[in-house]
Amino acid sequence: QAVVTQEPSLTVSPGGTVTLTCASSTGAVTSGHYPNWFQQKPGQAPRALIYNTNNKHSWTPARFSGSLLGGKAALTVSGVQPEDEADYYCLLYYGGMRVFGGGTKLTVL
Amino acid sequence: QITLKESGPTLVKPTQTLTLTCTFSGFSLSTYGMAVGWVRQPPGKALEWLTFIFWHDDEHYRPSLRSRLTITKDTSKNQVVLTMTNMDPVDTATYYCARAFNWSLAYWGQGSLVTVSS
Question: Backbone phi, then psi, for A8, in 5-degree steps?
Answer without folding.
Answer: -65, -35
